[in-house]
């Protein structure tokens, strides 16, 4: 009986949509299929992803919220440019002054979001410390994604094994944060999403990248 109840509930949901313009090989209409997918794929991670995609092609300026004393980021212009290459990948070059070595690489897969840090030299070659980061461990929230350091990060940067990155996203700001658990290390930079600025030069090594703003 317990197994039958969910099936009955699902059937009632499907019946509620009513319209069945075109029947496909699943036995349901195209309209009904798309509506069902919308119901199923409403995790916090997916909502966060869709919010971020809305900013593709746009550029924003940020400011330091918190950083270690004497950090090189102080006094530099901080710029993020949101790019989209594929439906499941978003690139965000993060420029610090004239330094265009940093690109945040986010991927949506298996209903989770992965964050990696791509670091390049000015000639476009990869830095020896690159592609570290982590993947969200649960469905998340529409305005928050948390990325605990993964095994690759622990191998590349042993001291960063306890790193936790998180990004907050709302109507007015995008905030990138890093905390190293067990230490005083805390870094946070916030970008103003209410004002777009001019598009920066491409990150080093990404000069041939073609911008896609399709959502």
Topology:
Layout lengths: L3 H14 L12 H11 L3 H10 L5 E8 L11 E4 L1 E4 L2 E8 L2 E11 L2 E8 L12 E4 L8 E5 L2 H6 L6 E7 L3 E8 L5 E7 L23
Antiparallel strand pairs: 1-2, 1-11, 2-4, 3-4, 4-5, 5-6, 6-7, 8-9, 9-10, 10-11
Keywords: Signal
Your description of this structure?
Strands 1, 2, 3, 4, 5, 6, 7, 8, 9, 10 and 11 form an eleven-stranded antiparallel beta sheet that branches. The protein is of the alpha+beta class and 215 residues long. β10 and β11 form a beta hairpin. The radius of gyration is 21 Å and the shape is globular. Helices cover 19% and strands 34% of the residues. The N terminus is likely disordered. The chain is built from four helices and eleven strands; from the N terminus they run αααββββββββαβββ. It folds into two domains: 37 residues, no CATH class; 147 residues, Lipocalin, CATH 2.40.128.
């Amino acid at each position: 009986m317990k197994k039958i109840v969910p099936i009955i509930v699902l059937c009632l949901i499907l019946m509620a949509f009513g319209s069945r313009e075109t029947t496909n090989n699943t036995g349901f209409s195209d309209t009904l299929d798309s509506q069902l997918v919308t119901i199923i794929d409403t995790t916090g991670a997916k909502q966060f992803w869709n919010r971020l995609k809305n900013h593709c092609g746009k550029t924003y300026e940020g400011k330091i919220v918190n950083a270690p004393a004497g950090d090189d980021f102080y006094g530099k212009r901080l710029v993020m440019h949101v790019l989209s290459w594929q439906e499941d990948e978003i690139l965000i070059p993060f420029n610090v002054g004239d330094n265009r070595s940093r690109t945040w690489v986010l991927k949506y897969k298996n209903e989770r979001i992965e964050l990696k840090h791509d670091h390049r030299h000015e000639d476009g070659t990869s830095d020896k410390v690159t592609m570290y980061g982590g993947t969200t461990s649960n469905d998340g929230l529409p305005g928050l994604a948390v990325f605990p350091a993964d095994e690759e990060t622990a191998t590349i940067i042993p001291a960063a094994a306890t790193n936790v990155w998180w990004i907050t996203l709302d109507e007015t700001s995008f905030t990138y944060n890093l905390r190293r658990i067990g230490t005083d290390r805390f870094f946070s930079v916030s970008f103003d999403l209410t004002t777009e600025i001019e598009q920066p030069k491409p990150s080093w090594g990404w000069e041939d990248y073609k911008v896609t703003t399709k959502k």
